[in-house]
Amino acid sequence: MPGAIDYSRITIVPDFDTAEWWMGTKQHKYLVRQCKSCGHKWFPPFPACSKCTSMDLTWFETAGKGVIHSYVVVTQPILSAFIETVPYVVALIELDDCHEADGALVRVAGVLLDDEEAVAMGLPVEVVFEETKEPNIVIPRWKICGTAENTWKFTE
Amino acid sequence: MGNLTDKYCVVGVGETPHMRPSNRTTLSMACEAVKKAMANAGLEPRDIDGMTSYQAGDSTTSNHVATSLGIRLNYSLDIFGGGSSTEALIAHAVGLLEGGYCKTIVIFRSMNGRSGRRMGGQAPSGPVPPTQAAGDQQFYMHWGWTTPAQWFGMSAMRYLRDTGATTKTFAEVAVAHRYHASLNPKAIMRAPITIEDHQRSRWVSKPLRLLDCCLETDVSAALIITSRERAFDLKQPPVFIMGGTARTMAPSPSWNYSRPEIHYVAGNYGRNRLFGMAGISQKDVDIISCYDAFTFTTTIQLEAYGFCGKGEAKDFVKGGRLQIDHELPSNLSGGHLSEGYTHGISMVIENVRQLRHRADDACPRWAEGIHTYDRKAGCRQVKKARIAACLGWGTEATSSSAILRGIIG
Ligand SMILES: [Zn+2]
User: Cα(B400)–Cα(B387) distance, rounded to whole angstroms?
Assistant: First the structure.
């Protein structure tokens, strides 16, 4: 398991577009933006719908489950918050419940709770909400929650 | 660009040495680069009336440079940007010149990329303050996903899976560009490397190794653009601008989050327009500059711009085909991986020198365009290089590109 992340070394600055998203993580909800006009979903929560330009928006609460689409293994800590964490895996996750009829989909990312040895593309993951010392900031992380066929793993 | 093709030319180029650290201001370096570009063209400050530059909150401005050098501008603009900016500003300059806004335009980039603000990092020294994650950073930083090597590593990893390429594919790019740097007296890293050297270098962000990553560099570089009529009165053989594109976005603006294929990049959307404007095909191109922030960005752009098919770069780059005297020489100065990292501009400058037949190398008479073509003796001029494709890259979602043509060879 990767070492702890020192979240006290990162100050999150929520803004007009994102404050409600951070409220969501505090309540252990993983939210993505949704258009009230056409139903399109996206992430991060940009303030307009890229399909119909509507700015009349709502939030969709995802089940917080998805599949690893890609990943990187960070071996060199760049930010001080991650000095104890390396090596760690950042995964790009395709959410299960955001697929649209025309092929549009939503991906999110996050630090895996699992090690490099466990990770592979195609594996199912679920969200885990991690409390930080800052009472208003809860960070979503991800953990592998099953097996799958046709996975792909990086080898040298 | 259609009817503007070949109407405007690059006429002057110049740069400071690649330094780490420079111990200079970005203003001081920019003044030197612009002065050298003016001298290269045979122009005086009074001849310049337009200036543009790009930066990421890490540089001086056009007005500061112009004021320092006694240049009176009719038009200036400093845009936010990195690797997808040089070619964008070249196309922009063509529009300004055609519209009569000015007659001769300088484009520059000046940065202390090593000793100043580093990409994705924190302050270079002293106690480390908590990092502020605002704006887009809210959705990268707390995930420990902050540097270009970490962002692009994500696409690189999926690319390996989808195409069957291996990190040896990336190594081929590193070896070719380093070989070119070994012929370039200005390059920071000149010792030739092998595939094995690449495979032994340490990980930065898997699947990217140290030798997959560009150099952080303190440098300034400038180029000057004017009309073909004026160009023929100046000191150097003109280099014509055949076409350009800027920041051709994929339909979805967010980088990795919702695009169907994360290694399908902006160049895929720009290439038909680029070659259409220039009225040529990929086969007509003699040399390229291919934005090598990482080895992998070159590989992917060869496919995006149609020099080979999707997923075919793994065969295309094999056996040194990106090297001088082979199929498609890429980054003849050594590029960002080996010469120094200038956010794209110095690679365009190298192409200009190649198209003039005046690559500044170990040949004693290069300034007159007389080359030996003896690679062992340090000549890096490509014989009969007439057309260069300059392929810029900002992120997977932004690119800019230009095609240049020389009259020699
Ligand atoms: Zn909509």
Answer: 17
pLDDT at B277 over 80: yes
Residues of A in contact with B252 (CB under 8 A): 50
Distance B220 CA to ligand 1 centre (A): 44
B94-133 residue pLDDT tens: 999 999 999 999 999 999 999 986 665 544 444 456 678 8
Which residues keep their CB under 5 angstroms from ion ligand 1?
A 35, 37-38, 40, 49, 51-52, 54
Alpha-helical segments (H) within chain A = 19-26
Helix axes B345-356, B86-98, angle to 10 degrees: 70
**Mean pLDDT of the A53-73 span:** 97
Chain-centroid distance, C-alpha B21 = 21
| Partner residue facing A70 (CB), from B121, B157, B167 | B157
Tell me if residue B257 is catalytic. Answer: no
Strand partners, B219: B111
Amino acid at A10: I
- Active site (annotated) includes residue B140: no
CB < 8 Å to A9, chain B: 128, 130-131
Rounded Cα distance, B146 and B89, in Å: 27
What are the start-end ranges of the E strands in B180-320? 203-206, 208-209, 218-227, 239-246, 287-290
DSSP H/E element including A133: none
User: B8: closest CA among B102, B74, B115?
Assistant: B102
Q: Which two tokens stand for residue B167?
A: 């990190």
pTM for the full predicted model: 0.94
Complex ipTM value: 0.96
DSSP state, residue B3: G
State the Cα–Cα distance between residues A155 and A137, nearest whole angstrom. Answer: 36
Ligand 1 midpoint to CA B258 (Å): 15
Contacts of B160 in chain A (CB under 8 A): 154
